[in-house]
Amino acid sequence: MGSLDADTFRTLLRRQAATVTVVTAPGSPPAGFTATSFTSVSLRPPLVSFCLDRGSSSWPTLERAAHVGVHLLGEDQHEVARTFATSGIDRFAAHTGWRYGPHGVPLLDSPVAWLLCRVTERVTAGDHAIVLAEPLLGHYAHGAAPLLYHEGRYASVAPSAVVARQAA
Predict the structure, then answer these.
(1) Coil, helix or strand for 98?
(2) Which of 157, 166, 110, 146 is nearest to 20 (CA)?
(3) In this protein, which residues make up the domain named Flavin reductase like (predicted)?
């Protein structure tokens, strides 16, 4: 039995909803890209991961970066996600809402949450690299809803319904 072809694999995985993140790294120029592969890995010690195509324009910078910023985008940040997903542009010139943080890491304005991380390991996995990183600093916005990616479109979480319990 052979492996799934790339198009079928991509179609199947589009059924999974994922939070939209932008990963940034210091450099000249700085690098940044939109990712839906971000996840927590461990609580003790705290570790997160994300994946990046080793053929992407951001890879040379990420391959050398000692620190990165991970930004969980809010439901109103579609344009930020599109900007950092666009190839062939200066993503930081196109998106002006950012500043330099510790270790020279670009930090985006107003995400749902951000983490400043130290890269601990890079693992080659097919045409991608899995980057493991240790969060050093972080911040989150209270009550902010995340931006999701599902079926090839940006989406948001439906408001929670209040369910009343009846006394038995």
Answers:
(1) strand
(2) 146
(3) 13-156
Where in the chain are the domains? 6-156
Task: Name the nearest CA neighbour of 74 among 13, 161, 148.
Answer: 148
**Residue whose entry in the numeric block shows the structure tokens 């500043």:** 99
**CATH topology for 6-156?**
Pnp Oxidase; Chain A (2.30.110)
Q: For residue 105, give both structure tokens.
A: 């890491």
pLDDT, tens digit, 9 for 90 and up, residues 107-119: 999 999 999 999 9
Share of the chain above pLDDT 70, in %: 94
Asked if 48 and 67 count as a contact pair (C-beta separation under 8 A), the reply is: no
Structure tokens at 9: 């694999």
Chain centroid, CA 55 distance in Å:
18
User: Which segments of the chain does DSSP mark as H helices, in order?
Assistant: 6-13, 59-64, 78-85, 91-94
For the sheet with 67-72, list strands across it: 31-35, 21-25, 67-72, 113-125, 128-140, 46-53, 39-43
Q: What is the mean pLDDT of residues 66-90?
A: 95
